[in-house]
Amino acid sequence: MTSANSRAIRIDQHGGPEELKLVTVTVGEPGPGEIRIRHHAVGLNFIDIYQRSGLYPMTLPQQLGMEAAGVVDAVGEGVTHLKVGDRAAYASQPPGSYCELRVMPAKCVCKLPDAISFETGAAMMLKGLTAQYLLKKTQPQGGLQPGDFVLFHAAAGGVGLIACQWARAMGLQLIGTAGSDAKCALAKANGAAFVINYSTEDFLARVKEITGGKGVKVVYDSVGKDTWDKSLDCLAPFGLMASFGNASGPVAPFAPGMLGPKGSLYLTRQTLFTHIASRESTQAMADDLFEAVASGKVKIHIDQRYKLEDVQQAHRDMEARKTTGCSILTL
Known about the structure:
By secondary structure, this protein is α/β, with parallel strands linked by helices. It has helices at about 45-55, 120-135, 160-170, 180-190, 205-210, 230-235, 270-275, 280-295, 310-320; strands at about 5-10, 20-25, 35-45, 60-65, 65-75, 85-90, 100-105, 110, 150, 175-180, 195, 215-220, 235-245, 265-270, 300-305, 325-330. The protein has two domains: about 5-125 and about 275-330, Alpha-Beta Complex (Quinone Oxidoreductase, Chain A, domain 1); about 140-270, 3-Layer(aba) Sandwich (Rossmann fold), CATH 3.40.50.720. It contains nine helices and 16 strands. Strand 12 (about 215-220), helix 6 (about 230-235) and strand 13 (about 235-245) form a beta-alpha-beta unit.
C-alpha cells in the first residue's frame, strides 16, 4: 500500500459557497480501525451547508461531506467486516467525503448490496438512515400504529421523500408540508397521505382539519425557526416534537413550562450520529434501509447531479430551495 493523490473540496474559513475550494491532497494508508475508499459518487446534505457557513463551527481547514459510496481500496488492522474490493457506502463522521479517495473510520462503513448502485448508495445513506431512526426509533409514547397521523415538514426533500414512502409502507398517515404546489405533488406521489403548501396555506389550520381537531402524534421538523411554534400546536396531547435540523435557522430559546399547557408534550432534538455511534447499530439500521430500497418499498430519487468541481453551484441550489429529492457529486 502506498499513498496517492486525490482531488478534494476544502474550506479554509467559514462563509458562503465561494469558500469551497478544489484542492489536491495526499492520502496515506489506513491505520487500525480504518479503511481507504475510492469514491464513485458523493452525497450532498444540508449539514454540509451548516458546517460550511459556521452554524456548526468546525476546526479549519476542513474537507466537507458526510456520505459517499465506492470501493474499498485498503483495509487497516482490526477491520473484519470489510475487505479490499468490497462495494461500500456510508454516512459518517468526521466530514471529508467531497473527494475521490479518503482514509476514514471503518465502523460506519457498510457493504453495499449488489442490487443498489453506487449513485443510489451515495444519495441514500445519510438521508435514509435519518428517515429510519425518525420513523422507527423516534416514536411517541405508545409507539406508532397503522392509521396514526404524523406531520413531516420539507416532505419533498431528500429525507422527506424517503420518509413519505416508508411511512406509507408502515401504514401511517403522513401529512407532508412543502413550499410549492410542485413539491407538494411530489410528496403526494411518494406516499404522503395529505400535503400542505405552507407558503399559501396555514399548515396548523389544515392539520387540525385533516385530523378532526385531534392533532398528530409526532411532528418531524428539520426546518426549525419558521415552523416551530405552529408545529407544537399541531400535536395531540402527549405528542412528540422531533426536531432534527434547522434549515430556516435555529429555534429561539423557550421556556419548557410552555409544553404543559399545550398538552404535556414531549420534545427531542435528534442527530443521526448518536444513532450510528456503534458498528452494531449502524449495521442494523443500514440493513433495514437496504431492505426497504432493494424491495422497492422506498425508491431513492436523485434529482440533481453535479461534478465535484461544481460543488459551489450545488450549495447555491440547495440554499435557494431549488432542489428536490437527493443531490450527488459525480466523480
